[in-house]
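Exam review. A common question shows you a sequence with its structure tokens and asks you to describe the fold in words. Practice with the pair below. Do the first one on your own.
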Amino acid sequence: MSRPPAARRTEVWLRGNLRPTVGVAAVAACLAAVVALAVALTGAPLWTALVAAVVLGAVAVPFAVVAGRPRLARRGDELLVHLSPFVVRRVPLEVVECVFHGSQPLESAATAAAGPPLRVGTLVLRLAERAVEWRGRPTFTPWGTWQDGHIICDGRWCEPLTVEVARGVGSRLFEAKRETRPPEPCS
């Protein structure tokens, strides 16, 4: 079997994180068990408990699949950005200028009372200022944000973000841009 041309192959740059999804699936399984027990205790037929379990599973499984998708991938001369459950944005590689490792504070009532704010790692992609049509897009905020020409992936919903991961994505960007750049004219 031959490999697909490079323009159609998808190269994953930043994987999704299934850990939060596993927790959601576990909660759904527990809810299904509680519903089944409640149905059994009320004397209702067993099929109603099975229907309840199937409905809860039907909610949890698609969420797990969607959350496990890569956050960033490359296909040809486009960067595929998956920061919304059902939308993948196709960004031309030419407008992505650089990638760097960052962090942002975790904000919650529990962390505010604990003293200095805890921080979560982020991966930041800076887009060219000239690309005004790519300045921002709606996102599922827990996965990341896209505003003012910066795409920021939240480290809690993707593979663990380290300086090495950021360097790897930056190197891939450099190589991809080099591959897609038109050849220099001969003089």
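Now try the second one, then compare your answer with the model answer below.
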Amino acid sequence: MLAIVELHTFNMQDAIGEGICRITEGTIKSLYSANTGSTKNLGNVSGNATSTTFNYDNIDHYEVDTGKTAISYRGYENLWGNMWDYLGDLLLQNQPSNRYLPYICDNFNYSNIISNDYHRINFNLPPLVGWISGFAYDENTDWIFLPIEFSNNANSLIPVGDYFVRSYINSGTQACIHGGSWFGELNDGLFYYAFNRKATETGEKHIGARLLFVPSTKNSIYTNNITKWKAKIGG
């Protein structure tokens, strides 16, 4: 939400940069993601790296072209592009009669199944794939921007500029990956979600996860901060 307010747009690729999204499949480069750290000179300023390093054949190669350099939003590198990120807090339950029910976990007890630590977000996600034309709203999770509709008038520029993918499997639980990868082109972006993987799947070179520090729930500093955070968001 901060990015939307600050940059006055949903299309973050247009506002900040495409990110690493145009590394051509079929070349040797497609075997590797970029090295991290190329936006370090930006500090907490949002922007695009002037050069990003790729290493293949044990040799560093430097890319400077649009679509081949990393972006950073307030110090958060590759928020879209380069590698898909697993989001452990989001799961999708596919049910008969075209019901695709999202669930969220907000206590760090992430799982590959919908346990008691996950609660239902009060809307259905749209079927299959498309360019996003509208977001859903749930007053209990009003800080979540998940798509509710597609439109033939939506594309990589307007009104959001990002894509959505849901699994063709109409039963079971799907995990969420976010942001897109090095060959996603203009599909990539802050609101690019794909619910098309099981949380137990491994081995795909373009999907990863960020390190996450989960503090002890017995730590008083942590529990006090969580209480303050929930109070601010109305939890």
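Model answer, second protein: The chain has three helices and 14 strands. The first helix runs from residue 2 to 7. Full marks require stating both points clearly.
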